[in-house]
Design a protein that fits this description.
By secondary structure, this protein is α/β, with parallel strands linked by helices. The chain has 8 helices and 7 strands. The chain binds nicotinamide-adenine-dinucleotide.
Length: 275
């Protein structure tokens, strides 16, 4: 992508992240990985933070090679306060304070509510909500201290807006992230910090590939029926959203030239949910 610099706050015809440092959680796979790749193409230095250390390092190395930006891999369990705060401190020491933080790490566990194990409920909320809180708190602290402000992005879902069967903690957590983003938008305003939520429909990442047979089993239907009659049933065209679609939305939020776009959520789902 061609790069053009524009003075802060002024619109540019090209979305650029030149001079920015972006940390993306869960970026060793799926949506986070593609967001990190696109942010690097737009000129940002990149931190890949993930539970999977080997995959995080491989992703960071591949991005550095492809885009020529600085990259770093951090082994981080987003549910662990010490790991998150320690990881962010390590990043600041090596590359400086983060300008953009994408809280993307996530898991899925499906079961009807009457069978949902409390331990699974807590596990899922810990990754999505504790992780969202701990990583955004660490990022906001750096953004305030740097005096430069920044952009916080949460990976929501159509499930931030709508419910589906078998997903009680996931739907509860994704709705919760919208509230967290709105609070950060209000509290962050004085410091030039904005917060927004991306809400994708189904994307064929490892997280979704795993769910297809699980849902088929739970609902007593075939895998093809899960795709057609459950996952894509309410889209306007029966299409999956792609990692590229979601990364483009993330880039738009991250590169937006002012804090006018703040406290919002944007659904990218082939019309599954329309607001
Ligand atoms: P994925 O399984 O491909 O990637 C998730 C990544 O998160 C993995 O690299 C994993 O190692 C990492 N991770 C998991 N737990 C972690 C933890 N405790 N600490 C740090 N890293 C951890 O999944 P994906 O589909 O790319 O999902 C990414 C995000 O997008 C999730 O928040 C998910 O809920 C959301 N989302 C996905 C879809 C979809 O259809 N794939 C749709 C809407 C929202």
């Amino acid at each position: 992508m061609a790069q053009e610099k524009s003075p802060a706050g002024q619109a540019s015809p090209v979305l650029s992240l030149e001079g920015k440092l972006a940390l993306v959680t869960g970026a060793a796979s799926g949506l986070g990985k593609r967001i990190a790749e696109l942010f690097a193409q737009a000129g940002a230095d990149i931190v890949i933070a993930d539970l999977n250390q080997a995959a995080a390092q491989a992703t960071a190395d591949a991005i550095a090679q492809a885009s020529g930006v600085k990259t770093m891999a951090v082994a981080m369990d987003v549910t662990d306060e010490g790991a998150v705060d320690g990881g962010f401190a390590q990043v600041e020491k090596e590359l400086g304070p983060v300008d953009i933080m994408v809280s993307n790490a996530g898991i899925q566990i499906v079961a009807p509510i009457q069978d949902f194990k409390f331990s699974d409920w807590k596990k899922l909320l810990a990754v999505h909500l504790d992780g969202g809180f701990l990583t955004s708190r660490a990022a906001v602290r750096q953004m305030i201290a740097s005096g430069k402000g920044g952009s916080v992005l949460f990976m929501g879902s159509v499930h931030s807006k709508e419910a589906s069967r078998l997903k009680s903690p996931y739907v509860a957590a994704k709705h919760g992230l919208e509230g967290l983003a709105k609070v950060i938008a209000k509290e962050g305003a004085a410091h030039g910090i904005r917060a927004n939520v991306i809400c994708p429909g189904f994307v064929r990442t490892p997280l979704v590939e795993k769910q297809i047979p699980e849902q088929a089993r739970e609902l007593g239907i075939t895998e093809e029926e899960v795709i057609k009659n459950v996952m894509l049933k309410d889209t306007v065209d029966g299409e999956f959203t792609t990692v590229d679609d979601v990364a483009q939305v993330a880039l738009t939020f991250a590169a937006f030239p002012s804090n006018a776009l703040n406290g919002q959520s944007l659904v990218v789902s082939h019309g599954w949910f329309m607001q």
